[in-house]
Amino acid sequence: MPHEAMTSIPTAETPQEACGVVGIFSENSKINIAPFCYLGLYALQHRGQASAGMVTSDGNTLWQKKGLGLVPDVFGKDEIEELPGYGAIGHVRLATDKDRHAVNTQPLAVRSAFGSLAIAHNGRLTNRNTLEAGLLQSGAMLQTDTDSEIILNLIAKSEETNLPKAVAKTLRLLEGAYALVILSQDMILAARDPVGNRPLCLGKMETDPEAFIVASESCAVSNLGGKLIREVEPGELLVLDKRGYSSHSLLPSPKKAFCAFEHIYFARPDSILSDKNAYLVRKAIGKELALESKVNADIVIGAPDSGISPALGFAEASGLPFETGVIKNRYVGRVFLEPNQARRDLAVRIKLNPIAEVLNGKRVAVIDDSIVRGTTSAQLITLLKDAGAKEVHLYIASPPYRYACFYGVEPSNQSELVARGRTVEELRTLIGADSLQYVSVDGLVRALAIAKEDLCLACFTGEYPISSNPNGD
Amino acid sequence: MPHEAMTSIPTAETPQEACGVVGIFSENSKINIAPFCYLGLYALQHRGQASAGMVTSDGNTLWQKKGLGLVPDVFGKDEIEELPGYGAIGHVRLATDKDRHAVNTQPLAVRSAFGSLAIAHNGRLTNRNTLEAGLLQSGAMLQTDTDSEIILNLIAKSEETNLPKAVAKTLRLLEGAYALVILSQDMILAARDPVGNRPLCLGKMETDPEAFIVASESCAVSNLGGKLIREVEPGELLVLDKRGYSSHSLLPSPKKAFCAFEHIYFARPDSILSDKNAYLVRKAIGKELALESKVNADIVIGAPDSGISPALGFAEASGLPFETGVIKNRYVGRVFLEPNQARRDLAVRIKLNPIAEVLNGKRVAVIDDSIVRGTTSAQLITLLKDAGAKEVHLYIASPPYRYACFYGVEPSNQSELVARGRTVEELRTLIGADSLQYVSVDGLVRALAIAKEDLCLACFTGEYPISSNPNGD
Amino acid sequence: MPHEAMTSIPTAETPQEACGVVGIFSENSKINIAPFCYLGLYALQHRGQASAGMVTSDGNTLWQKKGLGLVPDVFGKDEIEELPGYGAIGHVRLATDKDRHAVNTQPLAVRSAFGSLAIAHNGRLTNRNTLEAGLLQSGAMLQTDTDSEIILNLIAKSEETNLPKAVAKTLRLLEGAYALVILSQDMILAARDPVGNRPLCLGKMETDPEAFIVASESCAVSNLGGKLIREVEPGELLVLDKRGYSSHSLLPSPKKAFCAFEHIYFARPDSILSDKNAYLVRKAIGKELALESKVNADIVIGAPDSGISPALGFAEASGLPFETGVIKNRYVGRVFLEPNQARRDLAVRIKLNPIAEVLNGKRVAVIDDSIVRGTTSAQLITLLKDAGAKEVHLYIASPPYRYACFYGVEPSNQSELVARGRTVEELRTLIGADSLQYVSVDGLVRALAIAKEDLCLACFTGEYPISSNPNGD
Amino acid sequence: MPHEAMTSIPTAETPQEACGVVGIFSENSKINIAPFCYLGLYALQHRGQASAGMVTSDGNTLWQKKGLGLVPDVFGKDEIEELPGYGAIGHVRLATDKDRHAVNTQPLAVRSAFGSLAIAHNGRLTNRNTLEAGLLQSGAMLQTDTDSEIILNLIAKSEETNLPKAVAKTLRLLEGAYALVILSQDMILAARDPVGNRPLCLGKMETDPEAFIVASESCAVSNLGGKLIREVEPGELLVLDKRGYSSHSLLPSPKKAFCAFEHIYFARPDSILSDKNAYLVRKAIGKELALESKVNADIVIGAPDSGISPALGFAEASGLPFETGVIKNRYVGRVFLEPNQARRDLAVRIKLNPIAEVLNGKRVAVIDDSIVRGTTSAQLITLLKDAGAKEVHLYIASPPYRYACFYGVEPSNQSELVARGRTVEELRTLIGADSLQYVSVDGLVRALAIAKEDLCLACFTGEYPISSNPNGD
Question: Is there a contact between D87 and D127 (Cβ–Cβ < 8 Å)?
């Protein structure tokens, strides 16, 4: 793909979700649906902060607005009002190395033999290279780097007689993880990959019994004042139209493989995934972690923000007092520092503020959700010790993260994973903790209360549930 | 096409050119070509102020940067430096009603079976609807409203063995007016429609004997310090690559039909089109106008800015003194006025400042290039009379503009043309002039010094040189 | 004061601190001090988000940069680098109704008989009207609404022989609450009002034994990698210059009256004020609140973010489990909603996300820091009940807030305080809680561990420690 | 004055006027005056493009809006609507080296013993340093670098019983050049310095017989649809209030000294100054220049834009044809060029586009208004020769500019004047012209048709009409 000129993007310190999607269809109501879709996007903002977009349908025309930045950067009062219609899909995106250009913002809207269509999706196709080669060979051309454009091209070429059939036929060609929503003039189609790797749920608007919602997380449904109906099934293709919602077809789903990291980190604490609340799952992981570990500490603290929930469970199970040992500065934006080391150390203190009076002289158990590159962990440990902590014991609420994800979670490059090729002890030395303990895979599975064979644990075990690998590793 | 939400754009008061294109290829030189392409775009800014864009090739990758606004709004120092390579094409665009969205900015860059390609073009295809229908039918999908995307799709589907052949084959499918530049990893292709309606010229860089330029106007070549070689021939397909430039093929050109409005209004005064300098042609039109007209005036003035050149010729031929009767405020941007009529009248005075001491008690001959909607002419006449002019005689340096253009000039809607269905006398009454005289078609042709049969005069005569009509009028 | 045209500012739902100040002087070091002052401002961002500014001295010239917005909005890399010198003062400001204009951003820099001076301050003068009238009478003119300009005018008119004497003389004229820093070419002066109402502390840079810091809160010192030395004494005037720091003079301080709300809400949890850590004080208030209250609840939650710390203490003292019952959306900026009530209710859900699985069927004890206008409390209670809470018992970690503050805390208008003229029971009914309990004044004082007579509790008791009242209430 | 951090401003190539002022008072009309003041500012935009501002009075409160940039950058629809009232003053400013900071934007609004006041002025005080020292000594403090602040301080300290008396008393203390407007709650005061160096005129609104206007140039009056009444007399203090306008007092004016450069360059061509139209004066200068010179040329061209008017007169007097030899690119904003000389030469070609077909083989007489630093002239001559001109003869429509102006025109630094210390022949060699001829002082005076003793010709003759010199040169 032709590249837009850009400056480098700082590498993220946590695993990064690529996207969130939402779709609402309410043909029989008289209200504009865009303001609701906007609220849904706001609820999914944690899944992607690089761009936001929405496409609506008024029955004849599709209207779109998208741009770089957060939801409130892209959508002001005017933008929302200028999106008419009763059907809408929306998207928030995390910019990854491969996928950071303005041209790649979603939803992607096109004209085709099926009329105007727009698509938004979360996940990654593992047979994308093969599909792309076939499309180019057959005379198609591609303007973006998105899987969305591949999928739309396949739909456009399907030679089926109607859109649901064309989508169903296309889904059979896809390998990989996806949760996708497609808007046409008169319907929304929503689909989830056969192993159910990426989350997608179905809800209904309370104020409007004929309006239905699909969204990456249930928090979008509840933020709209709606009710969660159920998850979209792995392999299911749903149709939302003026008759309500219906299940159009179901791809065979020989195995489920729901991404464990959704519960560990990605999902908003109030979301329900696989019928479980994310916050309570995190507390349960913290409990398992405490039960599995040798704990010699005076206090338990969470690494803000994502370590707080497992830390509460850890404290409960260990009987140790939960404390606030370090707070996160809510106002930190860009920080400019001069290029001498003394001051670079200060940058961490801007973002994370230790409370010395809590830490001083204490043996501190710190709970964090995961270790990706290790830099942040090392800085946190130094910070706590500088603030007076006698010992810092780091507890991680997920197993060692050693295998890159090919299904839409960043980093997708093995070499960026600090735990790759290192023992826990080597890692402990590297980051400077007095002890380092991870929850076991079995402990994690117990906390999730989902059958182990229904989970994708590839990033911990290397056992990838979907065979293809786009990187050829 | 799905629409982006936008507020209305004020209607233009002059005929509007859609675009300007430029391409430079210099594989053997060691310099970055982007800064030169940028200077070329600056020289073509008068052909379009709504968006600007550039794509460069470093031999492997295409790099692009485009955006809404003027050339200096889109391209700062950083943007130029981040476009590496020795081949570049650029585009400036006027946003028309149909073509105002960000998604329609050019160049358009894609991946295809021929590798990465980018295209920029000026003009309009008259068989676009047919081509689009065929493409959608065959499974293609379209993301923009541009003719560029249609052309690229046809190239991608051509099944030819190399790019020049694919482009040549595609050109045979196109009807309408176009001047286009295509960039691949290792060449630029430039083509002009068979009647040569839109301008396109070939030049060379003086500092680099192996670097060649194609551009909508020669002013881009001279602004780069280059030399004009010749016009691209009607129907010609040129290839610029590491061997220099070569004429790849020539579509049959049974008739030439160069747009007369390029000389009347669009082109920059220092440009050479059809081997003639635009400024001198404009003076010549003014002379013809004076010779054809009954002139009872004390002074000659030009309507700023485009009436100044013909006014100089008019004054010379009539023997009347040329004066500055009204000046244009160079700083006018948006003007906000309260919604009462008294103040709305003041808005014209902000933009056009009459010099009462020059006009007072005089019979004034005002020369303007054309009348489109008539509003500006009426305001100008009122302004001059309010400033003391005893009589205002309006002379127009083109024949009555009564037929909409289907080849890329706005307005493309007949109903916006005030001269449509009105006699000159009716028009004179409407705008309030003491007399109104147009140059004749023959007078215009004499001034242009181009054979009448080699010109497109459709907007004056209704005789369209290219048969198809996309609007079905 | 002439007003700048502005749109309305939404009313705040918590008591609002007006400002934060910082000053650093390090004549003997070779380093630029601006980057450190910038880090100090970042640490004080929670004290004011409307504007930020900095003035530096290089020994000859004062250099300034200030603007509306957050610290990173005003200060980029370039802005910091263009502020040379070894002395600096900085300011962050909350825009109140009276003080929201660009002209009122601080520091304020002037030329005077003492050379160039700049001032930044936190607090409010209660005899401002009298001082202003006297100044205008004597021929002075005022360009801002700030107390800072009044103070600088008095210094300029002091007729003393040097700056410290002029400042000391001026301080004797001031009534009210203030913490101020003044920068001249060769020194910083720092002063605190005689009752010590507003906080101000002294610290030293660790990397530079001759560099000293004054700041509203110790977190600015620790964020710079410095060490807290002590509080500036009530009535004290400190001088920081090339000889280090020295106490120039001390106004008589018959009574101390430190603002209790600094510990309750304003200060950052890691700050030390009156030798006490704010986070630990908040936990202690939560304990007192639990001990004083009748608690019939199943779980304890904090209203995010400021209710979390007292909730931890409350849970500890009551023996009830601490839970996360509601989370705050970190990405919320402006939210646009259509003007129908149904959707306005949704706005709260965007900002506060209840976790139904935690709340469902529970009797919930919610801890919040204070009730100002009551709107947020009512919304929170509704939210929790809608999410399934069986009962909601609201506990407030401060006594009823019934008297407006005249010393720099907003709102300064009695009528905005919902507890004014209402019994606790009336208030409970109004906001819809199942029970409502405040900590007592004595309980608060016990938690603060500061002598009651050394505190300003005026907003709870109506006993104002400083007599004058600028509003004439 | 404390300095704001800024990047360097490119040096101007023409003499630069510091400012334009406008004031309108219309107590008896019901309309808001701000939209009219805005139109007046638009008309004066050519006098200053660095900042714009307006203050209005509704009888009680002064309302202000000002900012950096052009009038339409500072004033949108909302800003204008938020300025209520029937009295208004406005200001546009050129940023000079000394006066470029945001803090120095005008009008300056203050509170004083006379209530709220705002001032805007054009010109420069020559005894400013003395006045400032006296003010600081007496305990005043200064926040800006403007003469406006000095003047307001003197008014505030005047101890007179009403504002007109206070202003009249203050004017007696001022030395230098000024045209100033002062707004209070219920009147506008307008004053012009005793030699009448800076222009200021009085007009009336046509739509409102009781509304009067003061403005730097009559074009502001005519742009508002008003009528010019007369010039404000040298030394006159006018009062505009609800009774209309009245002449309050007259300072003794032993000598007039109206700035000749207003007619040569600064004023807009449609303005009337000293009862003469600027455009006709410029043509007259061109005629004098032709009559005084030896002219051996084939064509006459003007250096755009300011050389066009004298060129028309020159052509008329010499009998040579007037031609458009070079055009100015209307779209040029910032131009970025790489740092090698070849391309830097290209920058001139972007801004100035020669028409080779007009120039080729010709002996060209180029008329320009003045030579300041000489760089532009040299570039223009090179450009014309590169485009084919056989000879380039440069004619300057003002005498050699050898003495810096101390009354408000930039550059105020002698060393920047290329004609300083050079003979005309030396200068001709330096810039590369085939001949160089200036109009004589007497020729200029004849064209102006103003008595030589009533003009300030100091920049040509070194005879300064006002004794003091703030620079001590």
Answer: no
